[in-house]
Design a protein that fits this description.
Elements: H1 4-7, E1 10-14, E2 17-21, E3 54-59, E4 62-63, E5 67-69, E6 75-76, H2 78-90, E7 93-98, H3 104-109, E8 115-116, H4 124-127, E9 130-132, E10 137-139, E11 141-146, E12 162-165, H5 169-178, E13 185-188, H6 191-200, E14 205-209, H7 210-219, E15 225-228, E16 236-238, E17 241-243, H8 247-262, H9 265-274
Parallel strand pairs: 3-7, 3-8, 12-13, 12-14
Antiparallel strand pairs: 1-2, 2-7, 4-5, 5-6, 9-17, 10-16, 11-14, 11-15
The structure holds arginine (ARG).
């Protein structure tokens, strides 16, 4: 099993809210986290001790294996385990809230979310409006096409209809190839919607992060897709985002991330989702993401 931090995670569901209660590795019981007082309501003023802050984490939970909702509606995935492990290291509690990609950056800017973990690629443009932790995952774009497709490289998409998730780095590369005003770019709210459209023939290809495309193709054999990689795609790295200038939370996350890398937790989580320890995850942030 992954580790004791993930096994101590408790999810409480309230609509789209996924709540992960995290305790340190000290073997306390879950109940210890909640005051014995009537658990009813907002009447926190009456409780003796100030309630511990729960960090609200925004994630667009339609991006397996990084974040998705299971049959019970719980938010699960690699990103969830990573942030849960970081929180356990830091001794804080986190609550995951499903947050549509469109508007996710606003949510952290306005303080509706304390942090975002959503397979977010660190880009220079995004760094102007938010702060990122050190990179925690390497990614690259990947093309999905139907098995009978003639596409063998990114350029081949030029005369075709291409599906992307709006505002992602996949959207950016396709926009560059086809032109800003191209009617051949079909933008979707989520990546699974774009992939459904590929299956039904509404688009000829979908471009998104390799981990997500590969996961989908493997787990939806009936869709009849294959993948096409291209050396022109530049390496990307995921970071956890906080509101610009929120150094307190940023520091906590960076320290926790360094901690779970050092103690083997990161590698265990990585192996749980991707089968083996990462080749490059232990390497320091590349110059590219500076
Ligand atoms: N890595 C890509 C980006 O940052 C896609 C991320 C989409 N994440 C998600 N949970 N839908 O643009």
């Amino acid at each position: 099993m992954a580790n004791n931090t993930t096994s101590r995670r408790v999810f409480l569901q309230a609509g789209l809210l996924g709540t992960a209660t995290l305790l340190g590795a000290c073997g306390k019981k879950e109940e210890a986290a909640a005051p014995a007082a009537p658990a009813a309501s907002e009447s926190t003023a009456a409780t003796p001790a100030a309630p511990a802050k729960v960090y609200v984490v925004g994630t667009d939970a339609a991006y397996a294996p990084f974040e998705s909702q299971n049959e019970k509606g719980e938010i699960v995935g690699f990103d969830i385990d990573i942030v849960s492990a970081i929180a356990a290291k830091a001794g804080v509690q986190v609550k995951f809230v499903n947050t549509p990609w469109e508007g996710i950056f606003n949510a952290v800017a306005q303080g509706d979310r304390d942090l975002l973990v959503s397979a977010i690629t660190i880009t220079d443009e995004r760094k102007q409006s938010m702060d990122f932790t050190a990179p925690y995952f390497d990614a690259v774009q990947l093309i999905a096409v139907r098995k009978d497709s003639k596409v063998t490289k990114f350029e081949d998409l030029k005369p075709l209809k291409v599906g992307v998730q709006t505002g992602t780095t996949g959207d950016e590369v396709v926009t560059k190839l086809l032109g800003k005003n191209s009617a051949a770019i079909k933008r979707f709210e989520s990546t699974p919607l774009a992939l459904k459209e590929l299956e039904s023939g509404g688009v000829d290809a979908v471009v998104a992060d390799n981990g997500v495309i590969a996961h989908y193709v493997t787990n939806n054999a009936g869709a009849g897709f294959k993948t096409v990689s291209d050396p022109s795609f530049t390496p990307e790295q995921y970071g956890i985002a906080v509101r610009k200038g929120n150094t307190a939370v940023l520091e906590m996350l960076n320290q926790g991330l360094a901690g779970i890398r050092a103690d083997g937790t990161y590698d265990r989580i990585y192996a749980k989702y991707f089968g083996s320890a990462p080749a490059t995850a232990g390497t320091p942030a590349s110059a590219a993401s500076k």
